[in-house]
Amino acid sequence: MKNEWRRAWAVTWKDLLIERRAKAAFNAMAFFAGLILLTFGFAFGPDVPAGEAGQGTLLQQLAPGLFWVTVLFAGVLAVDRSFQVELERGGGALNALRLYPGDRKAVYVGKLLANVTIMFVMEMLVCPVAGILYSLDLWPRLPGLAGVGLLATIGFAAVGTFYAALTANLRARQVLLPLLMFPVLVPVILAAVKATDLVFHGDPMGELGSWLQLLGAVDVLFLTTCLLVFEFVLEE
Amino acid sequence: MNEPATGLAVEAAALAKRYGHTWALRGIDFTIAAGDAVALLGPNGSGKSTLLRILATASRPTSGEVRVFGIPTGDGDAVRRRVGLLADRAPLYDELTALENLRFAAVMYGVPASVEELRTALDEVGLGRAAGAKVRTFSQGMLQRLSVARTGLQDPDLLLLDEPYNALDVDGVRLVDELLSSARARGKTAILATHHIAKGLAHCTRVITLGGGRVSFDGPTATFAASQAALDAGSWE
Questions:
Q1: Model confidence over B116-166: pLDDT tens digits?
Q2: What pTM did the predictor assign?
Q3: Which of B57, B93, B100 sits opposite A99 (nearest CB)?
Q4: Interface list for B 124-153 with A (CB within 8 A)
C-alpha cells in the first residue's frame, strides 16, 4: 500500500512539475476563465439592479452560477491536458503507464491529485477576479467558498480524470471529453452553485449543510466508481 | 525476480488479434523456454509489435491464450512485474530532465534507486553530462539511450525489444547489444523484434518470422539461413 502511495505521489509530482515548467494548461485556463468572466460582466452590465432576483446588482445575484460555469469550461482544459502529456512522442509515455507493475489505481489517484491542485489554484485566482468584476465582498465568505470549492473540485476532477483517460487515444478527444463529462457532472455543478449561492447571499433556512453533504456523497460515489473501473480504462 | 527463471517463459496458443476488420495476428502458436533469446523477424505490418504488446500486457488478444512464466497475460500485474518492453516510441517526458525521467521510472517500477545510482545508470549509457538537460533537447539517439537506461533499471525476467536499433549511432547500437548480452548472461529471456536480420541472428539462438500475421518460420538460427524464410527476408530487410 505504501508503495502504491509512492507511485501515486510520483505521478502527481511529475504532472505538477511538467505543468509548472510548460504552463500549458494553466495559462490557457487562466486566460479562458478571465475572458468568460469579463464577457458575462459586459453582457449583464455592472450596475443593472437585481430587481425581483434579490438585493444588489444582477451580476452579484448571478455570480455563483457564472463562477461555476467558468470553472466548468476552464477545468476541461486542465483534465484534458493531464493525459495529453502522456501522448508526447507518439504515446510512449501512456504505454509505459499501462506497463508499470502495481495497481493502476495509483496512476488515477496521482493524476487526480494533480488535477485537483491545478484546478484549485486556478479557482483561487479566478475568485478575486470575479470579486473585482462583479463587486463581490469575498473576504468574510472565503472559508465557506474554499470548502465548497474543494468538494466540487474533487468531484469534477474525479470524473474529468477518468474521462480524460478514456478518451486519451481518440482523435475527437477534445470534442468527446466535455460531451461525456458534463452530463455526469450535473449533480456536482448544481450542488456547487446552490451552496455557493447560500454562502454569498445568506442561509436563513440552514440548507448549506445539506448541499455540502450532497457534494460529499457525490464525490465518494464518483471516486469509488472511477477507482474500480480505471484498470480497464487504461487498457488499449 | 532476479533469479534466472526456469521452464517456459512464453506460451502462446491460437493467439489472434484484430484491429477493426484487419487481423494483425492469426493462429499464432509457439513456446519460448526461459533463458532463450529469440529474434522476431518480419516486414512492416507483419504483427511483430502487436505480439510484443500482447506479451507485455499493453494489449489484449482478440482470441487465444498467452502465458508468461506460466501466468496468463489477463493477470496483468503479475506479468508486468516480470516483463520489460523497450519500445520504439520513447516513454519519456519532454519537460523533465533525463535524471527526473529516470527517477520517475524507478519509483513506478518500485526500484529503490538513489540519485547517485541513477546518475551512474546515465553515465553507463553515455548521458552523464546530459543528466540535468530537459529531454525535449535530446536527439533521437539520446532518447533511445535514455530508454535503454530506463529498461535497465527494471531488470526484467523477460526482455522485449521492439526495433531497438532505430535511429541509434554506433555507440547506441553497442549499448543495446550490451543490454541484450547482459540479459542473456544472467539467464534472462529476450525477444528481439527487428528489421536488422544480422543483429537478430548474432544475438539470438532461435528465429521466428511473421508474415501476414502468421508464423512463417520457427527454428534455430543455424537453420534459418538455409530456409525459404531467409530468402524472403531479403525483400523486406
A1: 999 999 999 889 999 999 999 998 888 988 998 998 888 899 999 998 887
A2: 0.89
A3: B57
A4: 134, 143
